[in-house]
Amino acid sequence: MAGRMLPRAPEGGSATPHAAAAPAPQAPASLRRWVEGIEGTFDLAAGVGLATRRLRLAGEVVQLRAAGPAMLEQLWPAFAHLEDASGAEPALTVNLWDSESSGVAHPPLPRTDANEPRGAVYYAAEPPLQVAYQPGHSLMSAFDAESASAWFWCASAANLPFWEPAAPIRQIMHWWLTDRGLMLLHGAAVGTPAGGVLLVGRGGSGKSTCALASLASDLLFAGDDYVAARPAPDPWVYSLYSSGKLEPDHARLLPHLPRPRFHGDEAADEKSVFYVQDRFPGHTCEGFALRAVLVPRVAGAKPRVLPLEPGGAFRALAPSTLLQLHPARPEAMAEMARLLQSVPTFAFEVGGDIYEIPKAIERLLNELPT
Amino acid sequence: MRYRANAPQVMAETIGGETIIVNLATGHYFNLQGSGVEIWEGIAQGESVPAVVARLEALYDAPAGEIEASATQLVDDLLDEELIVAGDANGSAEPVTPAPQPGRARRPFARPSLAKFTDMQDIILLDPVHEVDTRGWPHAPASA
User: Fold this and answer.
1) Mean pLDDT across the stretch A65-69?
2) What is the band of A341 on the pLDDT scale with cuts at 50, 70, 90?
3) How far is B46 from chain A (nearest CA, A)?
C-alpha cells in the first residue's frame, strides 16, 4: 500500500446539507483533531433527536446511537437478533448519522483523487484512533479505542450501497473486535447450542447457500458472510449479522427464505439481502463453540464431507479475510492458523439437493467427538 | 545476499506443512510445500541463499547443483512477486546451519514450486486502500 499524503480538507460541521465550498479551510494537524471534527458534526446532527438501540455481541453490549431514525432503519435489521435489554454498561458506543436526513453537512473530508476506483479506502491510524473514508460511497468510519467510541457517517441512509445494511459498520467491528482480542472472519457459521461449524471460502463457493439452506433444519444461524471468533485454544464463533446475501438467481432455489429486503440487480453485480430474523427469529443465535471448519464447493450429487488438511482450509479463510479488512494485523495469520489447527477441517461437497446440506452438517456435528 | 519478507504488505504463515503467503498490495496469494517451505522460512529469517542451500543439501538427496538452482529460481520468483526484498547484510549474524544427523538418510528432493492464486485480486483492484503517513490525516500542505 503506497503511502499517500492527503492535502487540506474542507471544514465540516456546518448546518447546511452538503455544503459545497467551506471558507478558509483549517486542516487539522493531527488525527485527534480530525476525529474531534467528526464528533462535532455528529453532535450537530444529533440535534434532530437521538434514537438508541443496544445489542449483545461477543458477550459485550454495543450501543448504537443514531441522529434521527434513518440510519437505524437501514442498519438495525442486521443486528435485531442480538438485541440486548440488560441495561448493562456498553463496551462500545457507535454514533450513526447521515447528512441527507439530519440536514447537517458532511464531517471534515480529505481531498481525494477522483480517478480512484469507487471502492477506494483512505485509511489513517494514530493510536488509539483509526479512520477510514470511502469517497466513492461517501462513507466514513472512525474509532477511538480509548473512549470505546466510534462514528459512522454516510451521505444518505436511503442510498447506502447494498452491502452496508447487510453487514453494517463492518470496519468499526473489525477494529473493535481486534482491540478485544477477537477476530472478524470472512465466513458463514451454523450449528447447535452444543457447537457448530464455520464455512469458509471465497465468494461464490457456497457459504451463503449452506448457511441459508440450514434455516430449513434445526440448525441455528450465526452468519452467512462475516462472523466474529475467539481464537484457540477454546475457539468460539459469535454472530454479528442476521443478514443473508444471495445472487438473485440463487434466491429462487431457497423458497423458505423471507422476501428480500433488498432486491439485487444482477446486471450491477448486486446481491439480494434477506434478514433471517424476519422469518426465523428462533433460528438465530449469539454464537457457539467452534467444532469444525468446512470448505464448501459445488460438486457431487449428494453432500459429502471429506478430510482436508488445515492448509487447505487456511487458504480458503486467510486471504479473503485479510484482504477485506483493514488493517491486517501481522499476528492475524498466526491466530487463524491456530484456530484451524484446534478443530478438524473438512472439504464439503454440497451436492445437488440444497435441503440435504443441513442434514450432512448435522450428521457431522453428531459424529464429531465432544 | 540476504533477503527478508516484504512486510507489512506481505504476510505469511506455515500450517500443516504448507506456507501461505498473501500480498496485501496486489491481492495475490501463494502457497509453497515441501522444500519450498524450508527455503521460504530460511530466507524470511535472514539466512543467505548459500546458507539455505547448504542446509537443504544436508537434508535432501539431489544431483549436484539441483538444490542451488532450485533455491535460486524460487528466490527469483519471490522477488518477481515482491514477496521478499533485499535484506540488511549488516544485520543479525548468519543463522547456524544444522549439521546433518549421522545415520539419518537424506530425503529425496523435489523442486519447490510457488503456486499463485489471483481469484481475490478484485478486492484490491476495486477497493484499494491508501495508507496515510504519520504526519496526520489529512495533512495541510505548507502553502495552505
Assistant:
1) 97
2) very high
3) 18
Q: What percent of chain B has pLDDT over 70?
A: 80
Among A208, A189, A206, CA closest to A197: A189
* Domains in chain A: boundaries: 31-179, 183-367
Provide φ and ψ at A352, rounded to 5°: -100, -10
As a whole number of Å, the end-to-end CA separation of chain A is: 44
Enumerate the residues of chain A whose CB falls inside 8 A of the CB of residue B130. 1-4, 120-123
Pair A197, A190: CB distance under 8 Å: yes
State whether A5 and B132 contact (CB < 8 Å). yes
A334 neighbourhood in chain B, CB within 8 Å: 13
Q: At what angle do helices B66-80 and B49-59 cross, to 10 degrees?
A: 130
The CATH topology of domain A183-367 is Rossmann fold (3.40.50)
Give the nearest partner residue to B24 out of A4, A328, A337, using CB atoms: A328
**CA distance to partner chain A, nearest, from residue B121 (Å):** 9
Of the candidate ranges A129-133, A186-190, A200-204, the one whose mean pLDDT is the lowest = A200-204
DSSP string, A115-183: TS-TT-EEEEEETTEEEEEETTTTEEEEEETTTTEEEEEES-GGG--THHHHSTTHHHHHHHHHHTT-E
- In sign, the C-alpha dihedral spanning A4, A10, A14, A18 is negative
> Nearest C-alpha of chain A: how many angstroms from B15?
5
Domains assigned to chain B: 3-108 (3.90.930)
Chain segment B84-94, per-residue pLDDT in tens: 999 875 555 56
Report the DSSP pairing between strands B107-108 and B18-23: unpaired
User: Which grid coordinates are listed for B76?
Assistant: 527469483
How does the average pLDDT of chain A come out, rounded? 89
Q: What is the mean pLDDT of residues B13-40?
A: 95
Instruction: Give A19-60 as a DSSP string.
Output: -S--SS----SSHHHHHHHHHHHHHHHGGG-EEEEEEEETTE
Taking a C-beta distance cutoff of 8 angstroms, is the pair A242, A283 a contact? no
Confidence at residue A203, expressed as pLDDT on a 0 to 100 scale: 81
pTM: 0.89
Residue A213 and residue A202: Cα distance in Å, rounded?
A: 18
Give the per-residue pLDDT at B100. Answer: 59
Name which of B15, B128, B130 is nearest A341 (Cβ-Cβ).
B15
pLDDT tens digits for range A123-172: 988 899 999 999 999 999 999 999 999 999 999 999 999 899 999 999 99
Q: What dihedral angle (degrees, nearest 10) is formed by the CA atoms of A349, A315, A231, B7?
A: -170
Cβ contact, residue pair B140, A334, below 8 Å: no
Contacts of A323 in chain B (CB under 8 A): 22, 24, 27, 120, 123-124
Residue A159: strand pairing partners: none
